[in-house]
Design brief:
Length: 525
């Protein structure tokens, strides 16, 4: 029933957007063209709420995060509507206006979900926790006329279609990864990506902060890491690094959008930038030159060396102190220059160091070859559908984040014509990115062992913000939907229609998306 609704409403969008002139088209948004698909959504035929110059946005009294989310909604709407849209504390819901309230939500929506009711006189988002209000506002955003995303005043009216949504995520972990090591991206660029991923209810941003080609975070106890190790990137450009204040700014910006930052220091492989910065970290005491190519697997920290663990302890200590989130990602992939025994010894030791700094380890699934602490999380990235060491770890209680490279790697080309990206894991167009079930994909790794999904964007070939956007859109929303929506809503046909409905908004937002031929994009988008 719900799927039939999605289909008919989404078709309604596609037809109305292409059949009417732009100003009128802007007023027609489907109640059920939301990505990720909500758990349940019922449109109320013929009912709309109109945002007007008299609309007030109310937020839960005493909740700073609720007021912050209300402020973000106002900040989105003020430039395009030209309305004052004051933000005021109030609960119960007003007779008229938009309200974000931390009461009255069903228990079923948990800590990240929400209930959204749109009637002729009010829009009310209810949640148990502020994260749910933020998620509800992301849904509301998609129900606004696309012109709401303009940065200059647009002609109204500003209708929001009436109905009732109850919504909450399938998985708690819905991640995006940005590799800032192969090419460096500024704080502003990262913040723009945070804005974009949070539209689709992504709640973790994994920053790949170090690799052979660059070290991107200032570490006070080892200053050459950033100053020298951060001074280049793939292709020989100037690279760059985040000061600790920069990194904290990213963490705060993300937190204000209910996105938790996961910093990664990749080790023992992918460490040429560190080894080049400090000769004494090398087994032979000789610093290699900086590296600006794209090979992998040639570098390793010196496992038998005591200084290696002093180094890791100090680096992780500083990073942990700057990171409010629970996780530190230790990499652990493609350590082909480290033998298996050394690798296991190393992973054992690093898990203890991270634990001593009060954080939980995430590592690429290769760490399943070592003995894992009960809390350590493995991130699967291979192209296979079975992995014996990982399945064995899972049988022991290890939880998994799913990032199969042939489904979720945003640096893979869409097809042979795509100029950016790589193709070692194959081509990934929308149907491939969307066409798998994270809870039933890997042998021996069932739904209850899966924390969620992550879409990594490696940046050997990615240099600019338009490059990032071209690879992430429209595939990132596909992975976000797999992480959020119940499997019962899974339908490629329905998804394609709902995804197509995002195109006009991306156009207004200036997001440089790939016009996949698998999607019918509304005319003009
Ligand atoms: C594999 S998958 C890598 C990265 C590369 C990426 C390119 C994994 C954990 N490591 O080092 O950037 O492929 O697609």
């Amino acid at each position: 029933m719900f799927r039939a609704l999605i289909l008919s409403f989404a078709i309604g969008v596609a037809l109305s957007v292409s059949a009417v002139p732009p100003a009128a088209a802007a007023t027609v948004v489907s109640f059920t063209s939301v990505v990720p698909a909500p758990v349940s959504a019922t449109a109320t035929a013929g009912v709309t709420y109109s945002i007007t110059s008299g609309t007030t946005i109310y937020s839960e009294p005493g909740s700073t995060p609720a007021a912050q989310t209300a402020g973000q909604l106002a900040a989105l709407l003020r430039p395009s509507t030209g309305f004052p849209l004051p933000v005021v504390s109030s609960n119960p819901a007003p007779a008229d206006g938009i309200a974000l309230l931390l009461s009255g939500a069903p228990a079923s929506v948990g800590t990240q979900g929400y209930q959204l009711d749109v009637t002729a006189t009010s829009i009310v988002v209810r949640a148990n926790q502020p994260a749910g209000l933020f998620a509800g506002v992301q849904t509301l955003h998609q129900l606004l006329p696309v012109t709401a995303d303009a940065t200059t005043v647009q002609a109204g009216p500003w209708p929001v279609p009436g109905g009732h949504i109850v919504d909450y995520p399938r998985f708690t972990h819905r991640g995006a990864m940005l590799d800032v090591a192969r090419h460096f991206f500024t704080v502003t660029q990262v913040e723009r990506y945070i804005d974009e991923i949070s539209l689709y209810k992504i709640d973790y941003l994994h920053l790949h902060l170090s690799d052979d080609q660059g070290w991107r975070i200032a570490v006070n106890s080892w200053p050459n890491l950033a100053a020298y190790g951060g001074s280049t990137e793939v292709g020989g450009g100037a690279g760059g690094y985040y000061t600790q204040a920069d990194y904290s700014a990213i963490v705060s910006y993300a937190a204000a959008r209910f996105v938790t930052v996961i910093p990664e220091i990749d080790m023992p492989g992918h460490t040429n930038a560190a080894l080049a910065s400090y000769a004494q970290l090398n087994c032979n005491g000789v610093a290699p030159p900086l590296y600006t190519g794209t090979n992998v697997g040639f570098s390793s920290l010196c496992v038998p060396l005591a200084l290696t663990y002093t180094f890791i302890d100090q680096v992780i200590g500083e990073l942990a102190a700057l990171t409010p989130g629970p996780y530190i990602h230790i990499g652990g992939d493609e350590a082909s220059s480290t033998n298996a025994t050394d690798y296991a010894t190393f992973v054992d030791h690093v898990q203890q160091i991270v634990a001593a700094h009060g954080k939980t380890v995430i590592g690429w699934h290769n760490i399943a070859g070592a003995t894992l602490l009960p809390s350590t999380v493995a991130q699967f990235w291979d192209t296979t559908t079975s992995n014996a060491p990982l399945a064995a770890a899972v049988a022991n209680g290890t939880k998994v984040i799913m990032s199969p490279a042939n489904k979720t790697y945003l640096d893979m080309k869409y097809n042979h014509k795509t100029t950016l990206g790589q193709n070692w894991a194959g081509y990934i167009d929308v149907s491939t990115a969307y066409g798998w079930n994270p809870g039933a994909y890997l042998t021996g790794v069932g739904e209850s062992s899966v924390l969620g999904v992550e879409a990594p964007l490696w940046t050997e070939t990615i240099v600019t913000t338009p490059n990032i956007e071209y690879m992430a859109f429209p595939r990132l929303p596909a992975i976000a939907e797999l992480g959020w929506s119940p499997w019962s809503t899974h339908s490629l046909t329905a998804f394609n229609l709902r995804l197509g409905a995002q195109g006009p908004r991306w156009k207004v937002m200036g997001i440089n998306y790939y016009h996949s031929t698998q999607i019918t994009w509304p005319t003009g988008s």
